[in-house]
Design brief:
alpha+beta, Sulfite Reductase Hemoprotein, domain 2, 5-stranded antiparallel β-sheet, 21% helix, globular, Nit/Sulf_reduc_fer-like_dom_sf, heme, oxidoreductase activity
Length: 372
């Protein structure tokens, strides 16, 4: 694919460049690898209460958003909490990592690689010019974040060796785990120099040209999957709020039951070392994997483009074994990667996988898909 001619600048939101949503300025806070300490969780909860709408919203890239940020001081408070290590790079710190790595399953332990990449990324001035949509990933071999559409991904094939993927496709370039960070940054640097107006690697005519010269193995197509990130995993507990929306009080509960947390790309939270499942349940944080089957964009009234209050409509749906994403318009914000039922608001109802359905029959339409 050739690079499209962009007629507008990349407007991916951050903290200094917020998005002007219908419910007020939206600020996105990057959490490389989804990792966040209990202390920083408390800082986010306080910012949401004092400066925003009172909630912390999880994103499909393992980051968080604060909505309705109408009062000043957010950047100063996040900087003090260590959540903004580089103002110049804050929008490009988009890094996924297998959230259960080193806890449950996987071939290699990729914990720490996202943070190491973040440090090196912020130390390279030229990479501050990457588009805000550019995405790095470290997959521990299970194939979870490899399927999330990263521009460049290191995927383990043995405990100490991995292959580099560009836009989800294996390149055959095998790189030791110890060199994974440098390899991904080398690709990002080459993209920054060659991208023209492209925002993503998939938009380039020849992505392989970004790789250094040298021998490569024959590319291998490996399966991707999403492992459940909810429930008990040895010495960890995974939970999820409804539609990825946490109250400040719920965020503080997360901080109280574990020293750190990992926000996943599926809007769940893994809590290493957590033991108090009862307190999490009492706070309304589900450990049932079915809670992640139905996702939804923010909808009305938070988004002026939305044609419906999609979260109110989606809340009436009962999970039944089929992933579905309910969106308020054709942009389909927040839609998950991988197979899912496409439910888009349109003309007083929803178009469910292409068939218009009135709101009153939405649940029935999904049941029909589950049984088909």
């Amino acid at each position: 694919m050739s690079s499209p001619a962009r007629v507008r600048a990349d407007a991916c939101p951050g903290v200094f460049a917020t998005h002007d949503a219908a419910d007020g300025p939206l600020a996105r806070v990057r959490l490389p690898g989804g990792a966040v300490s209990a202390e920083r969780l408390r800082a986010l909860a306080a910012c949401a209460e004092d400066l925003g709408d009172g909630d912390v919203h999880l994103t499909s890239r393992g980051n968080v958003q604060l909505r309705g940020v109408t009062r000043p001081g957010l950047a100063k408070r996040l900087t003090a909490a260590g959540l903004l290590p580089s103002p110049s790079h804050e929008r490009v710190r988009n890094v996924l990592a297998s959230p259960l790595s080193g806890i449950h399953g996987g071939i290699a332990d990729v914990r720490g690689l996202a943070q190491a990449l973040d440090v090196e990324l912020c130390a390279r001035p030229a990479l501050a010019e990457l588009p805000g949509r550019f995405l790095f990933a470290f997959d521990d071999g299970r194939g979870d974040v490899a399927g999330e559409g990263a521009d460049v991904c290191w995927r383990a094939v043995t405990p100490s060796l991995g292959t580099v993927l560009l836009a989800g496709a294996d390149t055959g370039w095998l790189v030791p785990l110890a060199d994974a960070v440098d390899a991904l940054l080398a690709v990002a640097t080459a993209f920054a120099e060659a991208r023209g107006t492209a925002w993503r690697i998939a938009e380039l005519a020849d992505p392989i040209a970004l790789l250094p010269a040298g021998p490569r193995e024959k590319p291998v197509e490996r399966p991707v999957r999403v492992d459940p990130t909810m429930g008990r995993f040895g010495a960890a507990i995974g939970v999820a709020p409804r539609f990825g929306q946490l109250t400040a009080a719920q965020v503080r509960v997360l901080a109280d039951v574990a020293a750190s947390a990992v926000v996943t790309p599926w809007r769940s939270v893994v809590l290493p070392g957590a033991t108090d499942a009862g307190r999490l349940s009492a706070a309304g944080l589900s450990t049932d994997p079915a809670a992640l089957e139905i996702t939804a964009c923010i909808g009305r009234p938070g988004c002026a483009k939305s044609l419906a209050d999609v979260r109110a409509d989606a809340a009436q749906l009962v999970p039944g074994g089929v992933r579905a994403h309910v969106a308020g318009c054709a942009r389909r914000c927040g839609r998950p990667a991988g197979a899912h039922l496409d439910v888009v608001a349109e003309g007083g109802g929803y178009r469910v996988d292409g068939r218009w359905t009135p709101v009153s029959r939405l649940a029935e339409a999904l049941v029909g898909k589950e049984n088909s």
